[in-house]
Structure formats: structure tokens, C-alpha cells
Amino acid sequence: MTTRDDEAAHRCAVTPTPLWLSSASYWQPAHIVTSAWLEHAPFAFWLVDVIRPHRIVELGTHYGFSFFVFAEAVRRLGLDTEVIALDTWRGDDHAGFYGDEVYGSVKHVAEAEYGDSARLLRGYFSESRDRVADDSVDLLHIDGRHGYEDVKADFESWAGTVRSGGIVLFHDIAEHDRDFGVWRLWEELSSAHPSFTFTHNHGLGVLSLGPITHQALRSIFDADDDETARIRATYERLGTRVTRQAELEAMPAEISSLHDVVGSLVGEISHLTSVVEQRDQVIEEYRRSTSWRLTQPLRALGGVLGRRSR
What we know:
The protein is an alpha/beta fold. The protein has a single domain (15-251), classed as Vaccinia Virus protein VP39 (Rossmann fold, 3-Layer(aba) Sandwich). 52% of the residues lie in helices and 15% in strands. The strands form two sheets. A seven-stranded mixed β-sheet has the order 5-2-1-6-7-9-8, sandwiched between helices. Helix 6 (148-158) links the parallel strand 6 and strand 7. Helix 2 (41-51) packs across helix 3 (65-77). The chain is elongated and about 105 Å long. 30% of the residues are buried. One of its GO terms (molecular function) is methyltransferase activity.
């Protein structure tokens, strides 16, 4: 008798794993922080596994989620890779503005978990360009300001750091609101270079600058329409697992917050109940008082006069 497990094993045996998928695609991030990049972690894990980069540079880090994902992949794969995060850690009109506590939290995780492989550079992209040598970056992630002129300037300034055959990632290529213009630059670049477009989680563009040397990478850049749909659906599904993980990790804090709210409401109700009880006690004591009994005829007369006036 054939069981479901037997059937599943048979399907795995006759259907080889596609090149655009690996065990790294199923990893879960070690550090979940607030991010619009959550659902791209599975692809990022796979990408680092495939290209085995010597240097990764990220322009725009904020709370550090994508930076942590790259660093986590490097650690788990045992690679000798430098992962550089570049940001002012001041914010902007798209991400919002914030204080030094964000930089402090990213720095703490980087130093505690990823040691010498993770490096933070604080400053503006344009002013920090000479701190990274030409042709030294295998993977460049651009996720800074999202206006067309801004992201175009970032790409044109930093493309020279990417070695021939290196990969550039663009986040938010599916966003058309709030003066976002990454989609516009992506349309220009993706038509001129080997590229792949993910549309989920605000969109992620994958661009190759130069010849594609990895067969697994070629499998996504050369994918036909049906295969492209499969790749997108698979990584979107894997990405939702990361979102669920984030929701589960946030749940204890949310429950604690709800307990605080409920506790506050219970306290307010208790206070109001006490006030009502005190009021009732005062009224009852007044009704039992001598003045209440002496003024009873006046209250009765007032009621009679009131009825006559209607």
C-alpha cells in the first residue's frame, strides 16, 4: 500500500530541485526587526549561497534587517566575506527621521553576532564613495532615498565598485506612490542588462553587471514566462513564512501591551466604581440627615407647584 509520504518521496526523486532553489532558500533569519524587506530574505540567502561574495555593500540600512540577513548567510556558509552597511542613521522623508538609538541597536547586533565580517560606515553615500575601492564588490544592495534622481545618482556613483559579473539589488521597484521613482530607473536598467524582477513585498530588482558566471544565476535571468512565474511564486511563499515568524515573535510584546491596556482599564473601572459608591454613600447619609427630614414638606410643595404650572 502506497502512503502519502511514499508519494511525496517519489515526486522529489523524479523532480530535481531547480537551480534557483537551494537549502539556503529555506533558512529563517536570526534577527527580525521592523522592515519592508522581510519577504526577500529567502532569496537573499540563496543569492549569497550561489555567488559566495568576497564583499557585500548595502546603501541604506535603517534597522538593519537586510544587512543582518546578508551577514547571517555569510556566517552560516562559513565565508570570508566583508558585509558593509552604509547609512547616515538619521532617516529621511520616506523612511522618517530618528535618533542615534537605531544606529546603536544595529551596531550592537553587528558586533555581538557577526564580528569582523560586518562593518558599519556612517555617512552620506556620495561622501563615502571613496571608502570602497572600484571593482571590489560582488553584491551591491541599493535601498536609500527612493526618488528617481536619488536612486539614479546612487547607482551611477556606486556601479563602479561592482566587479564585472557582480549583482546589484534594487528594493521598492514596485512602489509608485509618495514620489518613489525606483521603478522608473528599474525599467531603464532592466532592459539594458540581464535582470529578474520580484513583484512581492514592494518589489526587488536583480541586475547583473557583466557576464553571468554562475549557472544558477543564469537559470533566473534566462527563465521563460512559466519558469519566471514559478520562481516568483516560490519565493513569495517562502517570504510569507518570514512574515509569519515576525508576527509570532512580536506576539508576546503585543500580548504584554494588551495586558497593560486591560490592567489600566480595570484600574479605571475600579476607580469609577469607588467614586459611584462614595457618591451613593453621601446621598444616603444626606437622606438620613435632620436637614433632609426638615425640608421634606418644601420638596413636596415644590412638586405640587410644578405640576400646577404645566
